[in-house]
Amino acid sequence: MSILVVGSMALDTIKTPFGKCREVLGGSATYFSVSARFFESHVNLVAVVGKDFPQKYVNFLKKKRIDLGGLEVGKGKTFRWEGEYGWDFSNPRTIATHLNVLADFDPVIPEEYKRSKYVFLANIDPHLQNKVLAQMKNPALVACDTMNYWIGHRRKELVRLLKKIDLFFLNESEAKELTGESSLIKAAKGVFKMGPEKIIIKKGEHGALLFSGDSIFSAPAYLMESIFDPTGAGDTFAGGVMGYLARENLINGTTLRNAIVRGTVMATFAVEDFSLRRLGAINKSDIARRLKNFKKLTHF
Amino acid sequence: MSILVVGSMALDTIKTPFGKCREVLGGSATYFSVSARFFESHVNLVAVVGKDFPQKYVNFLKKKRIDLGGLEVGKGKTFRWEGEYGWDFSNPRTIATHLNVLADFDPVIPEEYKRSKYVFLANIDPHLQNKVLAQMKNPALVACDTMNYWIGHRRKELVRLLKKIDLFFLNESEAKELTGESSLIKAAKGVFKMGPEKIIIKKGEHGALLFSGDSIFSAPAYLMESIFDPTGAGDTFAGGVMGYLARENLINGTTLRNAIVRGTVMATFAVEDFSLRRLGAINKSDIARRLKNFKKLTHF
After folding, report:
1. Which of A153, B71, B171, B273 could be cross-linked to B202 through a Cys-Cys bond (beta carbons 3.0 to 4.6 Å apart)?
2. Cβ separation of A206 and B207 shorter than 8 Å?
3. Which of B218, B228, B265 has the most A C-beta neighbours within 10 Å, making it the best mutation to test the interface with A?
């Protein structure tokens, strides 16, 4: 079943203890769509770039057969993020954020995308996430992501959005900040009250938790020998989750758990190199192999 | 099969965000033995207390049918630890440590304990751990725990000990400090070179990892609605692991994984109240129920 993702496309400048890169392909919609595309053949992307966006990156996404019918080229420069990771990969230091064309982004969903069954509203202003959702016709599952900034600065819009969300992706600190609870179980209960029936709390290198009704699933992280650059891991994870669900076109305890396992496995490829260098170079058998390892890792 | 534990018995004074307690029963040997006793009926304890050690705590352990033939009453006061936890339960602040009788502890293993098949050398000076081990006759499995202090201050003795250890329990920061590696996979490889064939890295609220040859097992933590006091969780975990292994009397991939799951479940009881108040009040059906929940939590 078709997937729609609305999010950012970016040029990232990143420094980690292992090296640095300059103005490489990034953005939530990018990581998400490349990851989801391994599972589901119809991935529709809505995002905005500037006139300076390198054609080679457009070609890369075309080659991955992601539908770019919703990729707008705005007046001005592409969104840029510059950050640095220390040894603690969970907390990057943002050096600079240049919104550029993203500042005026007003996503228009192409007519042929409006019936996409699986919708992922990546981390952008909740005001825009609401506007996107208003354009959609009868989606089967609506998921979204957010970030601390929106929880602090666009709470009202976010709360309005959450009433219409089926599956909410957020990380530990976001869950705690949104609900004012220090325990994740209590935080999940608080989020349930805001609307979403299913919640995935991402714990980075420590795995992920799914809350769905009374059921909780605790997925351990895939153990990596080394992490090179964690940028995009969360969106790649969401891409694996949503791609799997769209392919199965069935939402229940079993498919959700298996979707999280796929998402976890996809994220491991994202963190092995800068940008989408590794994620863009793998094939389905690489995924199958790592999935098999993950099962071995967690079976008892 | 019989278990021997050599470790500390303590009077703990603890403050957490939820309350405080004064001079309550604690110590590695205490938590370990009470936990292990749920799985294996022969748990032999070697430790030292002072003349001031409350008889009610001795009675408590007797009632749990832990063999106290190796409990020495030394001249002087019982070991005391005073600590405070903030919201981050992984790092207590030590307010005071009074070694008292523990300073001169020179464990003598009673003749009838020397043939214990499963040996756990809880966190004490590695010099003493070596002395204990030298007294044992043909154990089937020798496990030990340690702490950052010994890694920094008794490295030579610890390295000497590790050559004779089958199963090494340590936490993330200890694994990294001992080996100088930031990745846990690399740290485990470094520890393998020091002797132990099996390593359990404890990640607190994030679960535990087992490394055994080429095989890795990643056990998620049991998700708790609230943690009251994490003191003793690691020793309770080790008690569950060793108790299960001693009962099964078989060391392979399956029993080790299942042992870690038992250890994880036991630790959840330790953290629900101060001291052994909760751990000492549960029965086997409480454990079975929580084990069932854990399986549900992690199955996919």
Report:
1. B171
2. yes
3. B218
Q: What is the Cα–Cα distance from B145 to B170, expressed in whole angstroms? A: 6
Amino acid present at A203: K
Residue of B185, B223, B258 lying closest to A225 (CB–CB): B185
CA distance B299 to chain A (A): 7
CB B231 within 8 A of CB B26: yes
| Tens digit of pLDDT at every position of chain A (300 positions) | 999 999 999 999 999 988 999 999 999 999 999 999 999 999 999 999 999 999 999 999 999 999 999 999 999 999 999 999 987 787 889 999 999 999 999 999 999 999 999 999 999 999 999 999 999 999 999 999 999 999 999 999 999 999 999 999 999 999 999 999 988 999 999 999 999 999 999 998 889 999 999 899 999 888 888 889 999 999 999 999 999 999 999 999 999 999 999 999 999 999 999 999 999 999 999 999 999 999 999 888
Rounded to a whole number of angstroms, the distance from the CA of A207 to the nearest CA of chain B is 8
Pairing of strands A10-16, A80-84: parallel
CATH number of B3-298: 3.40.1190.20
Q: How many helices (H) and strands (E) does chain A have?
A: 10, 13
Tokens of B34: 């009470």
Q: Where are the domains of chain B?
A: 3-298
Q: Which residue in chain B has the smallest CA separation from A221?
A: B218
Please report, in angstroms and rounded to a whole number, the separation of the first and last CA atoms in chain B: 34
pTM: 0.90
